[in-house]
Amino acid sequence: MADLDPDAFRKAAHRVADLVADYLERLESYDVVPKIAPGDVAAKLPGRPPENPEPLEDVLEDYLRWIEPNVTHWQHPMFMAYFPSVASGPGILGEWLAAGLNSNVMLWRNAPASTELEQVTVAWLRELFGLPAVFDGMFTDTASMSSLLSIVAARHAVPGLHARDEGMAGPARLRLYASTEAHSSIEKGAIVAGVGKAGVRRVDVDAEYRMRPDALAAAIREDRAAGFTPFCVVATLGTTSSTSVDPARAIAEICAREKLWMHVDAAYGGVMAAMPEHRPLFDGWERADSIVVNPHKWLWTPFDASLLLFRDPAHFRDAFSLVPEYLSTPEAPGVRNYNEYGVQLGRRFRALKVWMILRMFGTEGIAAILREHLRYANLLASWVAADPDWELLAPVPMATVCLRCRPEGHPDPDALNRRILDAVNASGRAYLSHTRLAGKLTIRVSIGNPRQTEAHVARIWELLRSAAATQTRIDA
Ligand code: PLP
Predict the structure, then answer these.
(1) What's the Cα-to-Cα distance from 386 to each of 54, 151, 380, 381, 391, rounded to whole Å?
(2) Which pLDDT tens digit goes with each residue over 158-214?
(3) How many angstroms separate the alpha carbon of residue 292 from the centre of ligand 1?
(4) Atom of ligand 1 nearest to the CA of 142
(5) Which of 187, 201, 260, 345 is the most buried if burial means most Cβ atoms within 10 Å?
(6) CB distance 144 to ligand 1 below 6 Å
(7) Residue 88 dihedral angles phi and psi, to the nearest 5°
(8) How many angstroms is it from 186 CA to the middle of ligand 1?
(9) Residue 475 has pLDDT above 90, yes or no
């Protein structure tokens, strides 16, 4: 069979568009987490590919029977685990258009409009977040990649260290600083960049899980005295466990004094800056050398799209540019060839879906939804605070609430909360995740889906309280 001709493709595409619309319509009829065991789906699928072409309807039948019902439904408004990763309608449409074009955004010459739309969309996001025009940037797949690229650029900026050309043989002498609450992707980035786990120094946090600037300054002093080379500090604005916000201004001042690269991991929380009234929370992030914010988290962009902003593109270009003969093009200097700023040569056309989201929601529309999410989170926090059997384990600066049940005199609240979490998740009616704060098992409720309403938040509170009642009865 040849590829689908335009007419056949049109019919098939309409069919698929209908399926996706049907899915979004019936989303809430599904259990958020399917009740299946590892291997169940694979066992239902043919072990070998067909030798002859199969009609679309047969393939879609299997999709509807085995795939759609057996995913964990990240799109479901009762999915409140981890951080939101939701594909909005405009985002899905942008993803489809990008798939049709299949533009590979490696060089301006082979992706002119896609390159320029990426430049425009990056500038729009920068403006949406109220950051100064000095920031340029690009899209990567994930925050893990954005942070890795930033760590490599920071390493490249260390005077006298020629890691790009000579490698990183020998014991780790570089030091990168991140709080004890920083995401594991920072340590992974350090591993890949040759800094090593030993090169990552975890800095203590205060009672609200924010990096302590005095502890950072002391760690740098101590490391310099011991012969290490400090080179980079990562400030997390919206940590994974509790959404705490490191003090960016104080960290920026230490970085300026010590001549260190400042990288900001605002993968989840950065979107808060789309609401001008919340920008003071990030005061000082505008002094960073690099910043990551993930549109695929709280900006409803189909996975994947991570925004990497950098103050000086030359640092990234110098760190990563390698142009073999076959990729040299006659464009004037200054034309953006994105492959020179990171690891990948071929790059997906991510800007289109983000651009469609910005256009179809509008900046005011985005801020209005975010404000609702904050209102829901505060509402839930107020219910928790008012119930003597429950407690909040962290402040709620964003839309994630850290809570747990702690009935008077209960001998093992960790085990109780684990059972409450398991019961809610096993019900299929919601999906929550956990963390540990101050040594205590903590249930996280993360809001951020534009399909969520106050009723969903009331329902999660009801589910938690009813699971707690059952579990405490078992203990009694
Ligand atoms: N940074 C923070 C603060 C996160 O919470 C996460 C994931 O939740 C990441 C980085 C990693 O994100 P990604 O999956 O885009 O690599």
Answers:
(1) 59, 44, 10, 9, 9
(2) 988 888 888 887 666 999 999 999 999 999 999 999 999 999 999 999 999 999 999
(3) 10
(4) 15
(5) 260
(6) yes
(7) -75, 165
(8) 9
(9) no
Atom of ligand 1 nearest to the CA of 238: 3
Looking from the CA of residue 296, the nearest atom of ligand 1 is: 15
Which atom number of ligand 1 is nearest to the Cα of residue 147?
Answer: 10
Residue-wise pLDDT for 110-120, tens only, equals: 999 999 999 99
Residues 6+ apart with CB under 8 A from 358: 121, 124, 125, 128, 366
Nearest to 360 by CA among 97, 142, 131: 97
Residue 266 Cβ < 6 Å to ligand 1: no
Segment 384-422, tens digit of pLDDT:
999 999 999 999 999 999 999 999 989 999 999 999 999
Q: Is 142 in the pocket of ligand 1 (CB under 6 A)?
A: yes
Ligand 1 midpoint to CA 308 (Å): 13
Closest CA to 467 of 408, 421, 414, 410: 421
Take residue 255 and report the two structure tokens written for it: 């970085």
Return all residues near 242 (Cβ < 8 A) that are at least 6 apart. Answer: 181, 208, 209, 393, 394, 395, 400, 402, 435, 437
Determine the distance from the C-alpha atom of residue 449 to the mean position of all C-alpha atoms in its chain, rounded to a whole number: 14
Q: Give the residue whose CA is nearest to atom 12 of ligand 1.
A: 143
